[in-house]
Structure formats: C-alpha cells, structure tokens
Amino acid sequence: MTFSKLNSDGVMLFEQPFARVPYENYRKVFRTSQKNIEKEMGAVQTAANELAKRPDADADATLKAIDGMIARVDGLKRKLSDMQETSGSPTLGVMRERFQHLAAVENVESLTAPEFTRWADVRLDRWLVDWCLRNGKEKTARMIATQKGIEKLVDIDLFSDIRRIEDGLTRRSCTEALTWCSENKQALRKLKNTLEFDLRLQEYIELARVGKAQEAMAYSKKHLLSWQETHHDQIIQVATLLAVPPARAFGPYKRLYDLGRWNTLIQSFRLAIYHLSTLPTEPLLHLAMYAGLASLKLPACYGHETRNVDCPVCQPDLGTLAREAPFSHHVNSTIVCRISGKIMGADNMPLAFRNGQVYSREALEEMAARNDGYVVDPRDPGERQKFSELRKVFIS
Ligand SMILES: [Zn+2]
User: What's the number of domains the chain is made of?
Assistant: First the structure.
C-alpha cells in the first residue's frame, strides 16, 4: 500500500520550469507596460509643467498643448490594451491552464488511480514535446502538441525564439541575441550573466577581422568600456587586436579570431535562456528517466555476459542514457537478521545498537524478554543496552 501512495512533492520537483516559463513571459508584458506608462505619463507631466509656467500663453497654443497631451494618453491606452490582448491575456490563459494541470495531481490518492495514469500520459506527451524542441524537431513537436491538445502546456514559442536567435548566431549576426539581452537586461544582471559582453566582444572582433580599425575603436568606446569593472583585462587585450590582422595572428589573438567562438556563443546563449526560465539543460524526459534507471542500474548491466533481457538498463540505448545515473543501492534486495536468519522489513523492523550493529525486532524482543528488558550485541558482548533505547532503522 505504501508504495502506491502518490508522492506529489516528488512529482512537483520536475515542474518548476512548467510554471516558470509563462510567469516570466507575463513579467515581461508587465514590465513593458510599465515602461510605456512611465514614458508617456512623464511626457504629459513635462508638457503640463511647461503650460503652467506660461499663464499668459494664448488660448490656441494652450489648447494645442492640451490636445497633444490627450493624444498621448489615448495612444498609451491603445498600446496597453493591444498588449494585454495579444500577449497579456493569452499568457494568463497559459498560466491558468498549467496551474490547473498541476493542481490535478494534488487530488490523486494513489499511483494506480486511473486519473493519475491519464495525468502521467499528458506529462509524458509534454516531455516528448520538450525533447523534440530541444533536438530541432519543431514540426514533430507541433504535431504532438496539436494532436494531444496540449499547446498551452508546452513551450513551443520559447523554443521558436531560441531557434530564431541561434539561427542569427549561426549566420554570424549578434543582432537577435543582443535584442534578447536588452529585453532581459535586469534578469541577466541579477544572474551575473555576461552573455551581452561576449556578444559585444564578438562584434568588435568581426570589425577587427575586416580591418575596420576606426569603427572598432568607436564600438569599443560605446559598448565595451562600460564592462571595464569586470572585464578590464579582456578589453585591454582586444585593444591590441587591431594591430594584429587575422593573417598574422598568434596565440591569444588567434584564439580571438577563431570562428569556433560563434559556437561557444550559441552554447552560452542557450545556457542563459534556460537558466532564466529555470529549464534544465537536459531534456526533462532524460531527467525523469535517470531517476527510473538509477533504481534499476546494476554493475552487471554493463558486463558482457551478465546482461538481462528483461532489464531496461541492459538495453544498449537506455544503458547509454543510464551511464550518468548513479548505481542503485539495492544490490541486496533483502536484509537478513544475523540472530534469527529471518528477513527484516516493515513488519520485522531492523533495530540498531549504539555501535551501529543491526538485528531484527523479533529476535531482539525475544532476547529482551529473557534478560529483564536488556539486549546484548552477539558480535560485541560489551555492548549491552535497554531494548527500549534501540534505534529504529529505516531501509531506503
Ligand atoms: Zn541490467
């Protein structure tokens, strides 16, 4: 019975990004709205102050200024309601649906309940979509999402964004990635992430590569110098890069000109966006499978003649996946009492002496009954204590 009880906390361990991704999206909508309000209302305030300073202005000019203010506020109102309609409400809808999906688990009593099976099926579909999206199979991901009706439960948009920005980097353009950085400036700063600097540095290197020294210097002044506090040495080093054209580059300069840096940028970007959304760097499907595989994995799974056809870890594909997972500690599936030779378990609990030696409750109870409530460790006769002071041992 205890095995089939659903551990909903354990289930939730996997679900943080599921709740977090739409939340981050909504936060972005909120922040953009706030910026717009500050900008427009600031302008209205300034115009009002100007007007107040000129009480003797003629009526036409005053009217014009007031009309201008009204137009601004109207524009702001339109912009905000557009934003709420195109991004705000849909994102709230996604959040609502996801929380409902998670809340459904709370009411499930046992792992064998049919509603849990249905819930787990949806979860598996979500994880399959996640796997497809991370492996560039967007079409398949969309197909599964539509067929199963789980569009709001998967992050297709997020991964489309990732792909669009990575495509840019593959074409050796930092534009898309830099826009993303500025949209997420505060969050990246909080994480002490320096992707923006790396991108700026790359744009500078590209200017140096084609010999545009003047432009490179201006670029450095505008975009690199502000990072001086944390990236001083790198900024100094790339300053001399202008004197070393690619054809004559050596050592550190050669490394700066290395086109492989673009791949590193792609990796850094992916890590940054995963980090921001609290998405794990590995597919959720793999993480869930590690947990299952770890409970089955034995050293024998990797032996030549010890493989078992019924064991998932013994199969080559899953075995490869399980390589990272720890070995199960359940090599011996039963613990036998040294005194009685009986198996210890939930109804014949193991009990431990102060010295850590463990025997079954039944055997020790018998011993205590014969010795006025005292028990002695057969392996260490000096170890004598009250039965009631023995510690319970839980097998995990
Ligand atoms: Zn095996």
Answer: 4
